[in-house]
TrEMBL record:
Family annotation (Pfam families): UBA (PF00627)
Native source organism of the sequence: Populus tomentosa
Protein name listed in UniProt: NEDD8 ultimate buster 1
Domain UBA: 294-334, 368-408, 424-467
GO biological process entries: regulation of ubiquitin-dependent protein catabolic process
Superkingdom: Eukaryota
Coiled coil: none
Membrane-spanning residues: none
Domain Ubiquitin-like: 30-80
Region ranges (Disordered): 479-499
Length: 580
């Protein structure tokens, strides 16, 4: 016993603000504990000390905070250097680490929210939100892909949209993180499905724009490759010299600002690669486009006098090569599209609300749950599903519903009713799975065994096709043994059947079964990051089919002048060199 205890005690050799041997329990001590002990012996505050081990600063505000010293590799006779830092420096370091931790958490939330939204919207069914997400081409028409590609494209587009929001906020490091996630999502698509889609080339340009705004020359090589892929991708999507794109846009030059940014970045990469002639060519072309995109005051005033706002008028003139008639036509068509979209959104929202009402069932007098009253009750702090059941039971009487929700016995009864309805819905899903598989020619007893082993219709079919009759029977018996407590509980229920064993494993969403009048499914009431999903949805709602091409080019103009000046300076230096 004594030898086991002494083995966990280690002697650390500390130097710096305090020097000496320090005995610690490496299995139990953490970095904050070590810092506090050394700070105490140094007569200093913990924020005034940095601890360095093996050339690395030990940090409090990361995963190291919960790691023991032994997990960090600190053992007997390890050397720890304690360095003095100013209080302000210590606070700054801590704040930077906390900010980095918060940033990582936010990025993780964005990825999770985008994944959840994509899964719910990609299959085309009515979602649980009061909005719907659909894919459109540059002309605003809906486009269709396979379900797998649709999921990947939708995920990539939402991440791209989130990345552009960070770009607008000048948060280019965060933007790069999210855009990289978007690039990964797009890579899951069938290349043939997306070769005429320009979102991926635009994402590549946005990533290089972030490199440029961060002034990170280390990315020059990869930036050049991304721009090469972007130019090739745009030619595939838009046609040579944007011929296909302009045909869709009725001859307008909506893409001009995007190509200006592309050529500017190509010029920057060429300059830093020592290819000055190539750089000058790209920058001259970008500058020409910049001049084309400058909106004359007279044209702007004339379009605005027709009842259009300044932002809309500028955008239309930029995308119409300053042609006033074309710009006005563009604005009229865009206004009609917005009006049509508003009507479609209202219709879609009504459809979604009807589906939500069906999920909650009907009152004893066959009325739907009042969603406005449901929102009021939920705003007080009650869980949505429980509040819906209280309103359903009480004929949408808000006060009576609140009475039930605040009465412990009545509240328990509401929860019991919800669980019973869920079990009935799941039971129907189980029975429907069995009947469908039996109708395909499988023996009923084998089907029940496969369903008991668990999962969706596809998983049960896989069991039946890949396992022999004996294997299916054994698997069913193993499943029954694993769910022994479930069997005993179900045996006492008068309407229980052997298929109850797989209730928790079945996936009703994989079946074409109408369970809409039985309340929300488990998938629909899963924990959601409503705040983050709302932010992403709001960002999507801000855009339209031409948002990617609507670029304010002021920063691009400044950069063009900067690099043309650098090229002029390089030319001057070169000409002043004496000839050999």
């Amino acid at each position: 016993m004594s030898s086991s205890s002494s083995a966990s005690i280690a002697k650390l050799k500390v130097a710096g603000t305090w020097a000496g041997l320090l005995e610690v329990e490496t299995e139990n001590w953490t970095v904050p504990m070590l810092r506090e002990e050394i700070a105490k012996r140094s007569n200093m505050g913990t924020e005034s000390i940095n601890l360095i081990f093996a050339g690395k600063v030990l940090k409090d505000c990361t995963s190291e905070e919960k790691s023991s010293l032994s997990q960090l590799g600190i053992k007997n006779n390890s050397k720890i250097l304690a360095c003095r830092v100013s209080v302000e420096e210590g606070k700054t370091l801590k704040n930077e680490l906390l900010a980095d931790d918060e940033r990582n958490r936010r990025l993780a939330r964005i990825r999770a929210a985008v994944t959840a939204l994509s899964k719910r919207h990609a299959h085309g069914a009515l979602p649980i939100e009061d909005f719907d997400i659909e894919l459109e081409d540059q002309s605003g028409k809906k486009v269709h892909f396979s379900e797998t590609d649709r999921l990947a494209i939708m995920t990539g587009l939402m991440l791209h949209t989130s990345g552009k929001r960070f770009i607008r906020k000048q948060m280019f490091t965060d933007a790069l993180e999210v855009l990289t996630m978007g690039e990964e999502a797009f890579s899951l698509c069938n290349p043939k499905s997306i070769e005429l889609v320009d979102n991926i080339p635009i994402l590549q340009i946005d990533m290089v724009w972030c490199y440029f705004m961060l002034r990170d020359i280390a990315w020059i090589a990869v930036a050049g490759l991304r721009l090469k892929n972007a130019r090739e991708g745009l030619e595939h999507a838009h046609g040579k010299d944007s011929s296909r794109f302009r045909l869709l846009q009725a001859g307008r030059t909506s893409e001009l600002a995007l190509y200006l940014r592309l050529e500017l970045l190509e010029g920057v990469v060429a300059y830093h690669s020592g290819q000055f002639d190539k750089s000058r060519k790209f920058l001259a072309s970008a500058q020409e486009k910049f001049f084309q995109l400058q909106v004359p005051d007279e044209a702007l005033s004339l379009v605005m006098s027709m009842g259009f706002g300044e932002w809309d008028a500028k955008r239309a003139l930029r995308m119409s090569n300053q042609d006033i008639q074309s710009a006005v036509n563009f604005l009229v068509v865009e206004r009609e599209k917005r009006e049509q979209k508003r009507e479609d959104d209202i219709r879609r929202r009504n459809e979604i609300m009807q589906v939500e009402q069906k999920r909650y069932g009907v009152t004893p007098l066959q009325k739907a749950v009042d969603l406005q009253r449901l929102t009021e009750v939920v705003s007080i702090g009650f869980e949505k599903e429980l509040a819906a059941e209280a309103l359903r039971k009480n004929e949408n009487d808000t006060q009576k519903a609140l009475d039930d929700l605040t009465n412990p016995e009545a509240n328990t009864a509401l929860q019991h009713n919800i669980e019973l309805r869920k079990r009935r819905r799941q039971q129907r899903a189980t029975d429907a799975t069995i009947e469908r598989l039996v109708s395909m020619g499988f023996e009923r007893s084998r089907v029940i065994g496969a369903v008991q082993v668990g999962g969706s219709l596809e998983q049960a079919m896989h069991q039946l096709l890949t396992h022999s009759r004996a294997d299916t029977t054994v698997a069913a018996e193993n499943s029954a043994n694993a769910h022994g407590s479930t069997v005993n509980n179900n045996a006492s229920a008068p309407d229980s059947t052997p298929t109850d064993l797989a209730l928790d494993n079945l996936d009703p969403d994989a079946l074409d079964i109408d369970c809409s009048n039985e309340g929300p499914s488990a998938a629909e009431i899963e924990q959601r990051d409503v705040e983050m999903e709302g932010e992403i949805a709001d960002e999507l709602a801000r855009g339209d089919a031409l948002s990617d091409y609507d670029i304010e080019v002021a920063k691009e103009g400044e950069a063009i002048n900067e690099y043309l000046a650098l090229l002029a300076s390089a030319d001057g230096t070169s000409s002043s060199q004496p000839s050999q």
